[in-house]
Amino acid sequence: MADIMFAGIGGQGVLTAGKILIEIAAENGKNVCWTSEYSAEMRGGISLCRVVISDEEIGSPYPDVLDVLCCMTEDAYDQYSCQVRPGGTVIINRSLFSERDFPEEVQVYGVDAMEIAAEAGSPRGLNLVMLGAMIRATEMIDKDQFADTLNEYFEKKGKGDPKNLRCFALGYEKTVKM
Fold first, then answer.
1. Structural domain count, the chain
2. Given its phi and psi angles, is residue 146 left (phi above 0), alpha (psi -120 to 50 degrees) or beta?
3. Which InterPro entries match (predicted)?
């Protein structure tokens, strides 16, 4: 089982990242659950979603502790990092983080998500870069399997674009352990 949170601000694709992850996990035979929270503002307000992925039945969509935290902003890290279990994984968008120290009891991975999305020609693909970083850091789902299902996800929505896969692939490739 994996208890995951994506957190950031509205407009960064936080909720969409969670929805993509649960669809791909479900396509790969996992049980999934997704819950979201967001402020009244459409863009710029706090946005987060919790994702639970399991081989077994899911008891609660609201985990007490997180296995994985994907932070699109430094404020999200400051607010939610205390919920990550010792030995858990944190993925940060280094584009929006200042220099800082991280606790030794969690594994921290960083990716320059905004720059990578721009490099891929899709500035709105920040969330796909973060998904690539998360898959790299956790190895939760095979990279190629995830990419294939990601492509299918966008094609079903009529939004097939090679830039989507490029964002994911670059996020995977350019993630570093902090």
1. 1
2. alpha
3. 2-oxoglutarate_synth_KorC, Pyrv/ketoisovalerate_OxRed_cat, Pyrv_flavodox_OxRed_cen
Mean pLDDT of all residues belonging to the chain? 93
Q: Is the pLDDT of residue 68 over 80?
A: yes
Count of CB atoms situated within 10 Å of the CB of 7: 25
Look up the domain containing 111 and give its range: 2-177
141 C-beta neighbours (distance < 10 Å), count: 19
User: Are residues 77 and 71 in contact, defined by beta-carbon separation less than 8 angstroms?
Assistant: yes
Give the pTM: 0.93
Range 102-121 average pLDDT: 96
The SS3 of residue 70 is: strand
Q: Give the CATH number of the domain where residue 50 resides.
A: 3.40.920.10
Q: 9, 23, 1: which is closest to 131 by C-alpha? A: 23
